[in-house]
Amino acid sequence: MNSAPSNLTNHGAAASGTVSPTAAPATAAPASAPGSSPTFSPLYQQIKALITQSLQSGEWKPGELIPSEVELAGRFKVSQGTVRKAIDELAAENLVMRKQGKGTFVSTHHEARAHFRFLRLMPDEGVPHYPESKFIEVKRTRAPADVARLLELKSGDAVVFIKRVQSFDGMPTIVEELWLPGLIFKGLTAERLVEYKGPMYGLFESEFGTRMIRAAEKIRATSADEGAAALLQVAQGTPLLMAERVSFTYGDKPVELRRGLYSTERHHYQNDLN
Fold first, then answer.
1. I need a surface site. Which of 43, 174, 195, 250 has the fewest CB within 10 A?
2. Burial, 205: exposed, middle or buried (Cβ in 10 Å; 0-12, 13-18, 19+)?
3. CB-based burial label for 28 (10 Å; 0-12, 13-18, 19+)
């Protein structure tokens, strides 16, 4: 049984614009060639693109307060309403977050609510909480062809391979295999993963400068083979969910491939659609 790919979040990549940070932007870009359909770039989208560029460059780091709408309006020489609309979209895409009475901050995976943006397995009963991880294997290796294709690497490029089991309340529930570009995650070791107690994406953000913006996921039904059955402590042939997820950072650059097997004996997969 195949399911259609499901985007967990909206695309983080901003629409391209023609704005310069010091000059007032035009309301629309002209058609690129006679006879072609005109390509419009709304003003707020151009401002959104510029703010995203600043996030990507690290001008404002995860968790930091960004300038106020008034300050950004002055910087880009546009109205405060235009800036507000741009920030509304960035907030909807989880790139920034508004805090009442405090301002707008760059989103971070260290926020408690961010822990469940990419973890969609929820308990049938009780309050959602983050699982405990046991790392089975962590190594640097060469990217197989299928992994290289999904991560936009060359076949044979260096990758970091991670295999782990995640447990809720002592019950193994998820078996995951992850592939990460070796160049970006140089220095990521089993020891560092074990000693880090927060969410893995928080580690990627704070120590490797890589923030996951969105992910695309495919889900299929499968059954436990001998190896998965042993790790999940279920009978061979037990129905499982199999998910393949590619996570992207700024600029829609793929930076993680994750393949997981989920036991749904006490959990279910939840995705809010809007």
1. 195
2. buried
3. middle
> How far is residue 80's CA from residue 69's CA, in Å, rounded to a whole number?
6
φ, ψ dihedrals at 259, nearest 5°:
-120, 125
Q: Are 22 and 43 in contact (CB under 8 A)?
A: no
Sign of CA pseudo-dihedral 163, 174, 217, 86 = negative
CA–CA separation, 171 and 233 (whole Å) = 8
User: Across the chain, how many H-helices and E-strands are there?
Assistant: 7, 11
pLDDT in tens, 67-119: 999 999 999 999 999 999 999 988 887 788 888 888 898 887 655 555 556 66
Read off the tokens for 236. Answer: 């061979």
Which stretch of DSSP H or E encloses residue 132?
Answer: strand 132-142
3-state class percentages of the chain: helix first, strand second, coil last, to nearest 5: 25, 30, 45
CA pseudo-torsion sign 196, 150, 146, 185: negative
pTM of the model: 0.69
Most distant CA atoms of the chain, gap in Å? 65
The amino acid at 2: N
Q: What six digits make up the tokens of 259?
A: 């393949």
- Please give the structure tokens belonging to residue 149: 């294709």
